[in-house]
Amino acid sequence: MMxxxxxxxxxxxxxxxERIQRFNSRSIKKETKLIGLKLALSMIDLTTLEGxxxxxxxxxxxxxxxxxxxxxxxLPQLAAVCVYPIHVKTAKKYLKNSTVKVASVATGxxxxxxxLQIKLIETKYAIDQGxxxxxxxxxxxxxxxxxxxxxxxxxxxxxxxxxxxRLKVILETGELSTLDNIRxxxxxxxxxxxxxIKTSTGKIQPASTMPVTLVxxxxxxxxxxxxxxxxxxxxxxxxxxxxxxxxxLVMLNETxxxxxxxxxxxxxxxxxxxxxxxxxxxxxKDNGVYYSKDYISLD
Amino acid sequence: MKKKINNNPFTWNYSPAVETxxxxxxxxxxxxxxxxxxxxxxxxxxxxxxxxxxxxxxxxLSLANEKDVNAAVLAANNAYSKTWKKMPAKERxxxxxRIARVIQERARELAIIETMDGGKPIRESxxxxxxxxxxxxxxxAGWADKLNYAFPTKTPQSLGVAAQIIPWNFPLLMAAWxxxxxxxxxxxxxxxxxxxxxxxxxxxxxxxxDCDLPPGVVNIITGPGSTGxxxxxxxxxxxxxxxxxxxxxxxxxHSIAGTNKKLTLELGGKAANIVFEDAPINQxxxxxxxxxxxxxxxxxxAGSRLFVQENIAEEIINKLKAxxxxxxxxxxxxxxxxxxxxxxxxxxxxxxxxxxxxxxxGITLYQTxxxxxxxxxxxxxxxxxxxxxxSRVVQDEIFGPVLTIxxxxxxxxxxEKANNIPYGLSAGVWTDKGSKIFNLTKQLKAGVVxxxxxxxxxxxxxxxxxxxxxxxxxxxxxxxxxxxKF
Lengths: 299, 486
What we know:
The structure holds 2 protein chains of 2 kinds. By secondary structure, chain A is α/β, with parallel strands linked by helices. Chain A has 11 helices and 8 strands. Chain B has 2 domains: about 30-265 and about 470-485, Aldehyde Dehydrogenase, Chain A, domain 1, CATH 3.40.605; about 270-450, Aldehyde Dehydrogenase, Chain A, domain 2 (3-Layer(aba) Sandwich). In chain B, helix 2 packs antiparallel against helix 4 and helix 10 (about 280-295) crosses helix 11. The N and C termini of chain B lie far apart (about 75 Å).
């Protein structure tokens, strides 16, 4: 049942890139575009992960997640607000009575270079503060030296602390170097108990790319075919415009299908994407005319 | 580890994104392009050409009879001896280069006409047919004044008039494959496109006229098989290049026996696409789809026989079925269409007869669930699962969106089965192991073997077959040779 992680599941990079070109040549227009933009908006984990974050900024972010626009009617709320553990309490305060989730990074984010004991304590702290979802990082150093059991056990231990709290596992694909590695790390995370797999911390370049996301979606698909268990996907970092978000949705739609076309199973980790989507939705509303970016709040 | 399963009822269908055709100019009637001018056919007969996706008439085309063929060959001979042969090679190159540039400039128009006339998705004519056609002209423009370097120690000389007959699957691209090397080597041309898809060749005639090519260097005449046979049997042609079915290729060979006409044939194929257990599975599935459903399977090198190693057969077949459901079959002018219309009515009934034949042989047929458009010639993407080597659906070239699937256990077995066919045009191999690829490229009797990819073309790479898939190469330096004597 459990795959042998020493064994490669080969990925052909050229083939992956060609598939991406096919997704990107889809023409998304009119009604399809509107539905897609709204869906993408509802899938955003509005993120702030900076050393200089303040409670005020977190508050502002929560407000944005609840009311994306004063201008355009009928917009969905965003999926979650994603912050460091010390800001979870603030975020929870403002999002308490809503469907918007509070996600907290944990486990020595972004490098993960600390002991398991501290990672477990940090995870528990974030949950105690009120986090609905935990975004953990894997130990890339151990992964790259081939210590797959270590990585697996660590994820399993964190999931154990999480219990019913949904766990997103960040692979930090920008450090894994090959698509073969990304597939392997995806499989390890999924089998170790991840509810979501996530590409990046946003601190390393390249962050999320379409080829990387496709390889991870295929890992999810293969697992679903085997077990009938759904795993979520969260590309994060590097997706800053609406057009790119729609291309991701085309990829999702044609790889995993409609079951995943909801913010329960797919998220965008992004900070500036929401504003570009709002700009595009405003344009659709106003007969093709863009309004000034000054009308959109910067959060 | 219990996860919630939701059944999200949401479906995200793509709104139509249809290319507009208002700006496209198709004349109600086309004449023959002989000696630099469009002239009325001596036969005084015209026939209709149709859009296979709508069954609407697009235009009337001239039927070239024996006298028309004579006129075209005469014009080509005159142009050869009076201008083209004497012209410095670098001047010839400029004309070829100019044709390439104009094809690029008019790419959108040509792509839309190609799609209307042949039923192929606009995505393919836009991204594959037209750019590649332009690239062939660019590539051979470069060779024109370098023939002595291409064949050192030899003195390459042109032949004279080339009679070129091309099929309906890649109309403009095949015209480019034929005309570009012929002109680069200093020959003149009489070209006949298929009677089903002549419009882009006639547009090319307009382009050639607008490029100020000396009259008679390229002549483009339309008509059915009879026109082709007048060309083949004409005493004043020196070279025949034919792309099409194996039967007609054989007839041509019969009829020119005893003459000194040079001949290249690019005929049918029934390629083996071989997937090993260590292949990149998801990319292989994509490659299989691309190999057989590209251009509705109207591809002589289509990967129409799939061989899968037994232990991964179930996984591959399930993934193929799932992937096929995401193919959008319909209006070829829609930018989101993946599979367009079958090129013509006769071909559709031929494909249907093979579907029936396979079922009668007891082979499991799987077809996609989606609906086909009510009007037009369409065929569902189809799989024959557990096909048998002896069945005609495995042995014959179907030339449609129909894939046969067989399994194998050992490498010897798959090589034997892959080669056990009259054709030898192309093959595909999917494995992560380099040594396996090189072993197979040696042992497969096929002109092209693609590894971990399929249907890749480039003007610099020669293309052509073994056995009943023909002889002679097109593309690359090798593509110059059939048009030269040394």
